[in-house]
Request: fold
Amino acid sequence: MKCACVLSKNRTMSLALAGLAILTILFSGCATKGQTGALAGSGAGALIGQAIGRNTAATLIGAGVGAGVGYIVGNEMDKKEARKMSQQTASTNYAHTEDTQPLGGTKWKLTSMNPPEVGAEYTSKLVEFRPDGHVITTTTRPDGKVQTDDENYRVVGDTLIINKPGYLINAKYRISGDEMIVSAQDFSAVLKRLP
Reply:
């Protein structure tokens, strides 16, 4: 009789985890496919871990491995979409307005960067988010030389996605009045809106 009770508890635990994973996936609004993949992978990994190991450790290991694999797959999908957008923007010089809002048509001046050694030294850095999906960064160096970089961007919820062949940056951003704070994995920046 004790064995049947343990099996019933494991089955109940598995069903509860499955329900929680499904609800989490259905009701969460992830900004990027990488985040969605991590969430879905975590739920699936937890279910598989529980089914194989039938204990909490196996469930947690499965969730961790699933989250990692899910993020990698989702992030690759983000990169593919960014490349596709880059090609479309290059060929048509057009981006959907909803992909660039609320930044499209705004100009900003970088006021601080953390860590400061990200990128080369500069005396000023101006950033223009064009409605066509291009972000133009004009950097003035201490020696007076000016460098202009043209990248593609799109906005998904509170995530700013900047890409150019060879790299992709997913950064959280927040606007408060005339100030924008951008936070990525390797840096954070504060910008001030220009008229």
Remarks:
- Strands lie at 106-114, 124-129, 134-140, 146-156, 159-164, 167-176, 179-183, 188-194.
- The first strand starts at residue 106 and ends at 114.
